[in-house]
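Notes from hallway chat w/ T.B., transcribed later so I don't forget. T.B. wanted the structure written out for a chain they're using in a teaching module, and asked if we could keep both sequence and structure tokens in one place. Agreed to drop them here.
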Amino acid sequence: MEKQGNKKRIAIFASGNGTNAENIIRYFNDNERSCGGEVALIVCNRPDAMVLQRADRFGVPSAVMTKTELNDPDTILPLLDRHAIDMIVLAGFLLMMPVFIIERYQEKIINIHPSLLPKYGGKGMYGHHVHAAVVAAGETETGITVHFVSERCDEGNIIFQTNVPVAATDTPEDVERKVHSLEREHFPRIIDEILSNITTP
């Protein structure tokens, strides 16, 4: 697929509801706010995920990929090429990225994690599990971390962090709402900043 104009093209990989994906799509649809990027593809590993319906609502192409297909370079790389992808954003994607994709998109794959890494990162620590752990540990703050994706789970170089207080009376659901607010406010803007620094052929 040939690029239309000078827009840099983003693929969002997501596994679930897709609220972050929709927020990112809305942000880049507002050309006055963005550097000129666009969400060109949604990749999902679950055929029943709500993110696919959100993609359809905004006219964004989507593809459902099994874990086996994701780990097959002859399947996933041609898909990314067909959509002329410049950058990959993980937004609630629960599978590890294959090394061959990380190497091809070096420092062009970013992830958001719902804690202040290195706290509460690693295998099994996602979504509600993170917020429950934060409350159980009696933390007084939590937040979000945007980082580059590396071969080790949640250990890539940190791009951005911001925090929010956790009250002694907060439930995991309260913490989740606070963290989602930070995601809505900051994630699209950070993606935009990274995208503006990416050089395309």
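Follow-up for T.B.: The helical segments are 19-29, 50-57, 67-70, 73-82, 99-104, 127-136, 172-196. Might be a good example for the class.
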